[in-house]
Amino acid sequence: MATNAEVTGPVSQEDIEAAEKLKNEANELFKKQHYDDAIELYSKAIEKNPNNAVYYANRSIANLRLENFGYALGDASKAIDLDKSYTKAYYRRAAAHMSLGKYKLALKDFEYVTKARPNDQDAKMKYNECNKIVKKIAFEKAISVDKKEVNIADSINLDAMTIEDEYEGPALEDGKVTLKFVTELMEYYKQEKQLHKKYAYKILIDVKAYLQKQPTLVDIKVPDDQKFTVCGDIHGQFYDLMNIFKLNGLPSKSNPYLFNGDFVDRGSFSVECIFTLFSFKLLYPDHFFMSRGNHETLDMNRMYGFRGEVTFKYTAQMADLFTEVYNWLPLAHCINNRVLVMHGGLFSSDDVTLEDIQKVDRNKQPPEDGIMCELLWSDPQPMLGRARSKRGVGCQFGPDVTENFLQKNGLDYIIRSHEVKNDGYEVAHDGKCITVFSAPNYCDTMGNLGAFITMYGKDLEPKFTTYEAVPHPNVRPMTYAHSFFSSLCQ
C-alpha cells in the first residue's frame, strides 16, 4: 500500500478500517465492470480516509474506463500529491493526459516512472511508445509548416486505380451510389469482405464535395405525418448498426435518419460503419443526416483505433482523407425549428444563439474551448449552473442552463449523445435534455442497451426503442488502437 506523504487531518482507526472495507468492495465492482458503482464506493472510502493515495488512484482508473478524463486526471494528481513515490498514480495521470491529447505531459509522467524504476520494462515500453507519438506529431507539424496545405481529395487519381478481374464486390453505377450498391455493400461487409479502394475513395471525394456546401447548422423539415429517427453513437459496431436497420427499416426518403456523431473508433468495424453511412448520405442527401462527434477528430482517431483500422484495411493516405472529410461534417441539426440535435451539449456562455452556431468555421480540428468544442464535448448535469467537465474538455450544464438556452432560441428540447447510458437513453432536465446512445454493450464490456429515438413531424414527441447487442465476428474492440493505448483500455 502507498504511504501517506500528506495528511489532511487525523483519521480514526475505525474510519481507516471502514475505508479499506469500502475500497475492497469497490474493487470487486470494478472487476465486474460496474464502474459507476465502484466510483461511488471509492468516493465513500475517501470520505472516511482522505489520506490514502490508493483510493484516488483506483477512482482514477474507474473514471478512465468511463472516459471521465478530467476527473481521472484530478484523482491521479491528488494521489501523487499524497504519495510522490506511488508509480501507479503516474500511470493513471499519463493515461488521462494521453486521452486528452496532452502527449508531452504524459511523457513527463512516464519519464518519472522510468527513473524511479529503471528496471521496469513495462514503464520503458510505455515511455518509448509515448515518445514516438510526441516525435511523430512534432514531425507532422514541421512538415505542415514547410509546405502549403495539401488537399488530399484533389490529389487522388481515380483513373489510375484499376478494378481487378477477381473483385466480386459491389460496384458504383456510373460512379454513383445506388440502392442496389448500398444493399450489396452491407451484405458484403457481413461476409467480412472489403469494398474496392477505388469505390471507397470515390465515396469519400463525393461526400466531401457535398458536405463543403452544407451549413454548420442544418435545418431539417419533417412533415406532420412522417416518422424521423435519431441515432446516437455507433462506435464501429457494424453488426449493431445492421440491427438498427433491421428493427427500424433501411433509410429512405420515407424513412429519414439522423446519426448524431461518433460513428467510428473503439469498435473494430469502423470502416464498415462509415462507408455504409456515407453511402446512404450520398443516396438520400436530403433524408439522411450526419453530425460530427468528438471522435470525428484526428487525436481521437489516432488513439482509439480508426486511423489504425483505415491504414490496415486501406492506406495512410485514406486516413488523412477521412480527417479532411470529417472537418466538413455539420456540427448540429435543428428539426422543424423546435428540436436542436448536437453530439455533446450546451455552452459555458449564456448568450449563445442558433445564429452563433451557424457562424462557426468548422473546417478544422476542434479547439480546446468555445462553441465548436462544447457542441462536441459537453455533458448535462442534474445540479443547477455549470461545473468543470468530468472529461477535461467542454463543460457540464444544469437544467437552468438548458431552460435558458431553449427559451432564448425558441426551442422545445435538445437531443444529444456522447455518453453511455444503461438503458441506451436518458431523459433529463425536466424532459428538455435527452441523451441517446446507440452502441449496445459498448466496447463489449459495458452491458448497456442501445437505443434510438423516433418522432413524427406533427408533435415531435420522442419515442424510444431499445435493443441488446448482437453477435459479431471475433475481432475485439480496440484491435486497431494505438498499441500503447489499447493496453490501457482493456
Automatic annotation (TrEMBL):
UniProt-listed Gene3D superfamilies: 3.60.21.10, Tetratricopeptide repeat domain (1.25.40.10)
UniProt xrefs under InterPro entries: Calcineurin-like_PHP (IPR004843), Metallo-depent_PP-like (IPR029052), PP5_C (IPR041753), PPP_dom (IPR013235), PPP_phosphatase (IPR051134), Ser/Thr-sp_prot-phosphatase (IPR006186), TPR-like_helical_dom_sf (IPR011990), TPR_rpt (IPR019734)
Cofactor (UniProt): Mn(2+)
Positions of TPR repeats: 19-52, 87-120
Domain of life of the native organism: Eukaryota
Name of the top EC class for this enzyme: hydrolase
All residue ranges annotated as the Serine/threonine specific protein phosphatases domain in the record: 195-471
Residues of the active site: H295
EC number from the UniProt entry: 3.1.3.16
Alphabetically ordered keywords of this record: Hydrolase, Manganese, Metal-binding, Repeat, TPR repeat
Molecular functions (GO terms): metal ion binding; protein serine/threonine phosphatase activity
UniProt entry tagged with the keyword Metal-binding: yes
Protein family membership: Belongs to the PPP phosphatase family. PP-5 (PP-T) subfamily.
UniProt protein name: protein-serine/threonine phosphatase
